[in-house]
Amino acid sequence: xxxxxxxxxxxxxxxxxxxxxxxxxxxxxxxxxxxxxxxxxxxxxxxxxxxxxxxxxxxxxxxxxxxxxxxxxxxxxxxxxxxxxxxxxxxxxxxxxxxxxxxxxxxxxxxxxxxxxxxxxxxxxxxxxxxxxxxxxxxxxxxxxxxxxxxxxxxxxxxxxxxxxxxxxxxxxxxxxxxxxxxxxxxxxxxxxxxxxxxxxxxxxxxxxxxxxxxxxxxxxxxxxxxxxxxxxxxxxxxxxxxxxxxxxxxxxxxxxxxxxxxxxxxxxxxxxxxxxxxxxxxxxxxxxxxxxxxxxxxxxxxx
Length: 304
Known about the structure:
single chain, Rossmann fold
């Protein structure tokens, strides 16, 4: 049987018709769940973090190649939406387990690093994970607001990251799709767009439930997360076509879990940099800083 999984950016363009706006290298090392460890991610006192909360590599290990990959995603997203700045963004995948929550949270952190007011909202009302990734309690959230059991202002919670807020999914409702398709949901998105610079929605997987298709009508654009060497071409293509029936504005795809030992990911960060190689301060970081400053200027002009 032929392997028809997505393996590269070339596969995305050829078989799916999407550009990649981010390529995230595999963060797991070791064998087996108990022995797995995120590179450089340690809790207080050196203790290992919870596997999900440790996913915020942009915060725990900001100089790592993986964190740099998320910053590259941020930059590429800004270029992809250069003509029309997108404030409300939905992050989804074809199937569960492709890394959409990890991508959404790290993307939110990198956007908040620019000084933008960012809120990440868990719109997966069935299997929420954003609160776990941020190490926070779920409590009241989106579902409670949509059912008129809480006010929007009361469920917007500050996180430990500056300029970043979270809205959890709230209690598990009996009718998630109907709530996402309600007039109240449209009102919530409208109010958040007025209050924040960036609104990121972590949505369920597209081929599992109808919620992402409904939610797509409420956002400016979509980011599709694709697991490398795992998700089949026909699966991704089907998800893309379903999304496009509701909103054709897909900013691009994120290739997640690229297994590589290629030196280019670690060139700026290994110990040999101390012996003459270029360092982030002397090369890559400056380039990103200049690029982002230019982009911010363009977006500022477009919003006037």
